[in-house]
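Researcher: For the annotation table, I need structure tokens for DUF1995 domain-containing protein. Please keep the output clean. Sequence:
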Amino acid sequence: MRNMISSTTPLIALFSLLTASHTTALIPATPGEQTRRAILSMRETISSIRSSGSSTPPRIYIDYLLPLPRETSDADIDPWPGGLAQMYPYAEATLKEILAGIVIDDESSPGTKPKDASSQIISASDCCGLFIQESPASPSCDVAALLFPGPDQLSNIQQIEEMVKDRTLILFNKQFTRAADFGFFAKDRAQKLIFDRYEWGFAFQEIACRGEDVKLTFEQSVGWQACVLIDDGDGNYNKEIDIMDATWDRKVRPNYLEMEKKINEVLPEPLWMRKMGDVQEKGFKFQRKVQ
């Protein structure tokens, strides 16, 4: 999202917001809100897994929509020309903030600020890093996270699994979507190690569907949500149109064809047709400014 700019929220102030009720907006309006909602959802997810009696310790995905650099302009074809290497420092700061928020224990250790997470590079060429966040309450509450893990890190994931044991392990902005991404000879191993064991803790994703700007979110308390951003009448695409169908299972991410069908129902006119209507009614944008 081009209107999102990076912000740093003091940790104690951030924790004070965690008990606040969910915003009515489907998508986070700022990076700070996205971080707050990610922390809250992660805490709820970890608690749910722990209380369920599952034999699998917390193994969780986070998909975080990184705010674009301040210098990004609408004319940029690629806002991240440096790829993962350019994204890494931004993602590192965000991940550390989320990890610290997860381990805060205001009941047993009120006002105690956790130490900064330690980190090490797992693969410089793949821009993958490991982060360990110690909990001020108990070593059993420590949290580990892999940043930008890809198919080439399958063996690393196995080794880290053995290291963290029953502690929480997070895959942050993973660079794969299915077992087949790991190749023919490793897909079965990836299926058993990752896809059969991990679940979503938080997600904020964006895709294009039928030419529309679609945003998807996952939070533990509400499951998956999807909306289309349309023109609010002032040329700003920030009006949310919910496209979730009441019959969909919110534990499952909506697929493309389902969303396309729903968009056709709620927005029969495609984007280009709506823009043509705006031109006929209001004139071109440069003409509106003159008037």
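Researcher: And a one-line annotation?
Model: The chain has a mean pLDDT of 87.
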